[in-house]
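Section 4.2 – Deliverable D4.2 (structural model, holo form)

The reporting period included a commitment to supply a predicted holo structure for the target in complex with zinc ion. Inputs used:
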Amino acid sequence: MTFIDSHGHLYKEYYEDDLDQVILRAIQADVTKVVLPSVTSQSLADIFSAVEQYPDNLFPLVGLHPTDIPEDYEQELSILEKYLDDPRVVGIGEIGMDLYHSTDKLEEQRIVFARQLEWACQRRLPVSMHIRSAYAEAIEILREFSGSGLKGILHCFSGGIQEAQWAVKEGYLLGVGGVITFKNNKLKDIIKIVGLEHIALETDAPFLAPTPYRGTRNESSYIPIIAQAVADIFECSIEKVADVTTANVLNLK
Ligand SMILES: [Zn+2]
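Output (structure tokens):
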């Protein structure tokens, strides 16, 4: 039984002192593959140095996060785009829309998200999407890519059942992390309806640690805790959750 953490920030910026131990604990917990999303081009040096050290375990994404869009975003996008030629890059992320704190950069978010989705289509790379308080706006853009073969994960899925059903119909996976272990989360009902074959496990480490580590620094070795919560919902074995969710993520290739 092995797991994939489909979204974890396992690099120096977040694990200054003990990155090696964090990665070794993940591997010992059978989390043998971790996908590392970038947020800006500045995170790429740390990400690629981690990937160089653990080429069989860590897999980089390249992308510009919606809340990190700089003034000169064209310049930033051109830096990021060059990295896409690196054969180690497995996808584009994290990209998307986030209007939770502010709607000031709505137009820039739209442009940057759409541009990166175009890259994904042209290069046949899957995307890791961060969508927060912006499902209507993001889906409006994603509709333009309907039928294009675009694949990806709605990382840390926080939409409702209608958004979930739309997403799985389009072929996207729902990213399920620590939130699934919290009391009174609506995600339990949603994933039960959409089914195990449409979800990917993730930690979003160092954020969103599952219960009983809620509020502390998250890490990829906690994936089995999330998988057990999912197994409880589907009333199946954790091995089945591992097998199906691993296959789901590998199918994005
Ligand atoms: Zn993230």
